[in-house]
Amino acid sequence: MKSVVEEPRPERAGSQAGKSRRDFLKMSAVSGAALASGGVLAACGGSSSTKTAAKTSGPVRLTTAKFDWVPNDLAYQQKLATQFHQTHPNITVVPASYPTTTEAAYLTSQYASSSPPDIVYHADNTWVEFAAAGALLDITDRVKDPAYAKDYEAIPQHVWDSVTYKGRIWGIPIGASLDTQIVNLDLLEAAGATGLGSGLVSPEPWSYDDMRTAVAEVSKKRPGTYGFATGGNAAAFDWTYALNYLYSNGGELVTSDGALGLNQTTAEPAWDLLRNIVVVDKAAAPLGLSTQGLVSLFTAGKLAVFEFSAVIATCVAPNPKGLPFKWQARLIPAGPSGSPAGRLSTGVWCVSKKTTDPDAAFLYAEYLTSASTVTNYVKSMFGGLDVYPARTDISLWDPKIPLQKASREMFLELFPHGKPGPQVPQEAGIVHAMGTQYEALLQGKQSAAEMVKNTASAITPLLGA
Predict the structure, then answer these.
(1) Is 59 a domain residue?
(2) What SS3 state is found at 306?
(3) Most buried pick, 37, 245, 304, 407, via CB within 10 A?
(4) Per DSSP, what are the bridge partners of residue 136?
(5) What is the pLDDT of residue 263?
(6) Where are the beta strands (DSSP E) in 154-246?
(7) Domain span at residue 207?
(8) ∠19-20-21 over CA atoms, to 5°?
(9) What is the DSSP letter of 433?
(10) pLDDT (0 to 100) of residue 95
């Protein structure tokens, strides 16, 4: 499988290829200062909507880069490029892919080079540090141009907010996923749980205390069956699950202006709940199990509450005959100071600041995120399950098919409660720091109060960097 890394365009003088992530960010410090002051970068977006982008003339060659999401993804991207070329014969698009395991190194080296891909797919908040460093094109004026109004309005504001940094928009969202729970209603109801609502998807609130009591009861009554597990039970101790509970108790890790938002009032009850379930009640699945191991426990009816993203596609769809118990997808329970929530992860197409033709590059990004392209992509690659489109104006789900109906209900009822992770360029360091503290919490090596204090101490220097 070929990629831009293997076959780069000829390097111009002054290439920064091979520099480290830290070197690249230092190299871009001047651009970052311009962004912070609303100066040069803020004015670079231009006002080029579909109408002006369509004026691109002469032969144009664009490259795209996207990680290997699913096995046939590159072939599908090539198909899209061919279809686009048929209606825009002056524009040739060459897609490339790269492994998810090398994403950080790949993006750093490519953006640091003199000829990075023109359009790049970013998952979650990986785009933020490159926007801050001046590597991405500010497209705020383009997406807010009246000619783009129909497309702009088709994407909910909370999704646009997930691709906004320093008040500017840096990409067009294509899809999203949400951290939610999938629960075994049979186990929970047998344990005395109430107020869960009915149906495959429920927005009904469930409190911290209600959940703790129910999952502890499941573990006591049924040896070999566990009440609770999150993706954070795996060896990586995924920090995002600790973030989910912080959000559901009305807290935040980092404020919108990049300052520390963590405080004892909202964070301690959230993380105390997780510690109590795992350490005190011993109601959680064993730490260190892989995600697939946890999925296997849930589908076998041995796990009452499992938290993950893409829960329907992961836990239900692979079983053609359905699961042997009643199940339900729902938000993370509400804490004493909050409401049900979940972390929103957004997939977004961004345009490189160094693209040789910003109008053509934006035109192709617009094509990749159009209603028809998104509909066909999600249906072809994912069967319409769990990979939710960012747009609300498409016909993706068949209400006659239960799982697709459930996916639609999740998108309409649960996604508006989602909140993105910290949108700061220091996120990679924050991830590591918080993951380390979360691991110590679940292993009983520190209290929730200590985790709040230690997490704040670890990430405060990063935010000031």
Answers:
(1) yes
(2) strand
(3) 304
(4) 352
(5) 94
(6) 164-165, 168-169, 172-178, 180-184, 201-202, 226-230
(7) 180-331+426-463
(8) 125
(9) H
(10) 97
Beta bridge partners of 184: 327
Predicted pLDDT of residue 385 = 53
Structure tokens at 194: 């109430």
d(CA 369, CA 394): 11
Task: Report the half-sphere exposure of 364 (CA within 13 A, side-chain side).
Answer: 38
DSSP state of 114: S
| Neighbour-count burial of 373, counting CB atoms closer than 10 A to its CB (0-12 exposed, 13-18 middle, 19+ buried) | middle
Task: Report the number of distinct structural domains present in the chain.
Answer: 2
The single-letter code of the amino acid at 45 is G
- Does residue 79 share a domain with residue 46? yes
Contact (CB, 8 A) for 395 and 411:
no
Chain centroid to Cα 301, Å, comes to 28
d(C-alpha 307, C-alpha 350), whole Å: 29
Same domain, 166 and 187: no
| Together in a domain, 443 and 305 | yes
Same domain (yes/no): 42, 29: yes
- 321 Cβ contact list (under 8 Å, min separation 6): none
At 4, list the tokens: 């831009």
Residue pair 267/335 in contact by the 8 Å Cβ criterion: no
- Same domain for 211 and 136, yes or no, is no
Which residues touch 419 (CB under 8 Å, ≥6 apart)?
247, 341, 342, 343, 344
**Separation between Cα atoms, residue 316 and residue 277, nearest integer Å:** 25
Residues 148 and 50: beta-carbon distance below 8 Å:
yes
What is the side-by-side strand order in the sheet with 226-230? 201-202, 327-330, 180-184, 303-308, 226-230
Judge if 27 and 163 occupy the same domain: yes
Kindly state whether residues 30 and 168 are assigned to the same domain: yes
Low-confidence ranges of the chain (pLDDT < 70): 1-57, 69, 231-238, 381-387, 396, 465
**In-domain check, residue 437:** yes
Tell how strand 388-389 and strand 172-178 pair up.
antiparallel
Write the pLDDT tens digit of every residue in 289-332.
Answer: 888 889 999 999 999 999 887 788 788 888 878 899 999 999 99
- Residue 143 C-alpha from the chain's centroid: 21
Looking at the fold, whether 89 and 187 belong to one and the same domain comes out as no
Helix locations, 113-181, DSSP H: 128-132, 140-143, 149-154, 157-161
Instruction: Identify whether 336 is part of a domain.
Output: no
Rounded distance, CA 238 to CA 286, Å?
15
In a domain, 5, yes or no: no
How crowded is residue 12: how many other Cβ atoms within 10 Å of its Cβ?
10
pLDDT digits 0-9 by tens, 331-342: 999 999 999 998
* Separation of alpha carbons 85 and 88, rounded Å: 5
Instruction: Identify the CATH number of the domain in which residue 441 sits.
Output: 3.40.190.10
Q: Which of 382, 397, 412 is the endpoint of a domain?
A: 397
